[in-house]
Design the sequence.
């Protein structure tokens, strides 16, 4: 199978630039030419417009915009939502069991659909159903004002 090679007339200064470019990419002139043709076909970039946006720069700019969007969503939506969930969890674990009776807790627990509960909320509901006793607060020591005593014999 014989191939016919084709040549392209080019300005000598431009040819020297082309050779330097090929060398900088570690390619032969033939390989660089083929890569350039494939690049322009794939990107649809216009080689007559050297000031066209560099795709890499466009991707970096889009990346910055996306990160900025995500940070804004985190600040306006995710963090407040997370804070609300933490408050609700604390209420379920600590405050609600102190303020309502066990029968009301069971009623509330049975009204919550299990498939809607995450592991964190399941733990909160379990804690609500089995409240932990609070440690006794030390009583002031009458013999020494400003101090507390846990010793019942003092």
Sequence:
């Amino acid at each position: 199978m014989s191939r016919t090679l084709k040549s392209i007339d080019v300005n000598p200064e431009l040819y020297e630039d082309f050779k330097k470019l090929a060398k900088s990419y570690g390619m032969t002139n033939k390989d660089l030419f083929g890569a350039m043709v494939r690049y322009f076909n794939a990107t649809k970039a216009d080689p007559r417009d050297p000031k066209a946006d560099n795709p890499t720069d466009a991707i970096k700019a889009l990346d910055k915009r996306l990160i900025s969007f995500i940070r804004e969503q985190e600040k306006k939506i995710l963090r407040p939502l997370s804070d609300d969930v933490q408050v609700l969890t604390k209420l379920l674990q600590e405050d609600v069991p102190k303020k309502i009776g066990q029968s009301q807790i069971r009623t509330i627990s049975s009204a919550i659909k299990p498939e809607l509960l995450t592991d964190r909320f399941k733990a909160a509901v379990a804690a609500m159903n089995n409240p932990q006793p609070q440690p006794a607060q030390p009583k002031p020591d009458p013999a020494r004002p400003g101090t507390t005593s846990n010793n019942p014999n003092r």
User: Anything to note?
Assistant: The first strand starts at residue 139 and ends at 140. The chain has a mean pLDDT of 79. DSSP finds five helices and two strands in the chain. Residues 12-48 form one domain.
